[in-house]
Write a structure and sequence with these properties.
The chain is an alpha/beta fold and 283 residues long. The protein is 48% helix and 14% strand. The longest helix has 20 residues. The chain binds acetoacetyl-coenzyme A. Acetoacetyl-coenzyme A binds next to helix 2, helix 7 and helix 9.
Length: 283
């Protein structure tokens, strides 16, 4: 199948990044969200990232203009009728994703692949709400999408081999390195990353060390680019909690219990960088 148009559903930090790398790879992109202000903000982020590339001499003004000209904005999922490939990147919530996949299944052409950027939810379950489970696949990008090389590709129970191949090829065209993973809670990335972040939160909860000290240990001691609590703020504490819940419920193992301090912060609305406060304060 020859993919020309990619629709990205969800214009937040992940969706806008996916739209950017898709447009940079030469695809026509429809960036969609429920409100105009959300798609405008997503486009604004892309604009800023591309401008930085121009300033750094990595891209010409003309290339930037060409990339932006390939992106159209939408607040109507019915625009999926123009898409060959869809990447859903909305909030980590099965009910919300199921609703979107049902709608996409109804409006997208029969040949269109429906991919989810879910970071932990079962692809097989998402696929089951559609009439095309063989064309549903997980395509999990890392944050910040324009910078991070990895795409975890997750086959659902019924995902067709040619759909896997197409998704792998697209990831490479976007300059990413695809890694194949099976459909288990948290896949590989979050099964390994989130318990580490959760354990770092326990260190603060139990008074082992301050957030600054925990982050310093992991940065200077393990050469991580950012400490786990800074990273948690960057990902979003609500997302971290949700993924821990998925692991806890999916494996039924107490080693995945979310730290009570994480729950408390999320209940307080301390969601990390996006809300201005998490383990650190942001202006
Ligand atoms: N969007 C686009 N580009 C960005 C960016 C963003 N949000 N943030 C940083 N960059 C770019 C910068 O422009 C810079 O590029 P140049 O040097 O070429 O201009 C480059 O990244 C490095 O940035 P900085 O020098 O400002 O800062 P840094 O060296 O600390 O790097 C970082 C920033 C790349 C984010 C680095 O801190 C890092 O790798 N952090 C860990 C990221 C990580 O673990 N991501 C995975 C999160 S988990 C996930 O996504 C999965 C999930 O399901 C939850």
């Amino acid at each position: 199948m020859n993919v020309q148009t990619i629709m990205v559903v969800g214009a937040g930090q992940m969706g806008s990044g996916i739209a950017q790398v898709s447009a940079q790879a030469g695809f026509q992109v429809i960036l969609s969200d429920v409100k105009q202000e959300f798609v405008d903000r997503g486009l604004g982020t892309i604009h800023k990232n591309l401008s930085r590339n121009v300033e750094k001499g990595r891209m010409s003004e003309q290339e930037k203009a060409d990339i932006l000209s390939r992106i159209t904005l939408s607040t109507d999922l019915a625009d999926g009728e123009k898409a060959d490939f869809v990447v859903e990147a909305v909030t980590e919530n099965m009910a919300v994703k199921a609703e979107i996949f049902k709608k996409l299944d109804a409006v997208c052409p029969a040949h269109a692949v429906l991919a989810s950027n879910t970071s932990s939810l079962p692809i097989t379950e998402i696929a089951a709400v559609t009439s095309r489970p063989e064309k549903v696949i997980g395509m999990h990008f890392m944050n910040p999408v324009p910078v991070m090389k990895l795409v975890e590709i997750i086959r659902g129970l019924q995902t067709a081999d040619e759909v896997y191949q197409l998704t792998e090829d697209l990831s490479k065209q976007m300059g990413k390195v695809p890694v194949s993973v099976n459909d288990f809670p948290g896949f590989v990335s979050n099964r390994v990353l989130m318990p580490m972040i959760n354990e770092a939160i326990y260190c603060v909860y139990e008074g082992v060390a301050t957030p600054e000290a925990v982050d310093e240990v992991m940065k200077l001691g393990m050469n991580h680019p950012m400490g786990p609590l800074t990273l948690a703020d960057f990902i979003g504490l609500d997302t971290c909690l949700y993924i821990m819940e998925v692991l806890y419920e999916g494996f039924g193992d107490s080693k995945y219990r979310p730290c009570p301090l994480l729950r408390k912060y999320v209940k307080a609305g301390w969601l990390g960088k996006k809300s201005g406060r998490g383990f650190y304060v942001y202006n």
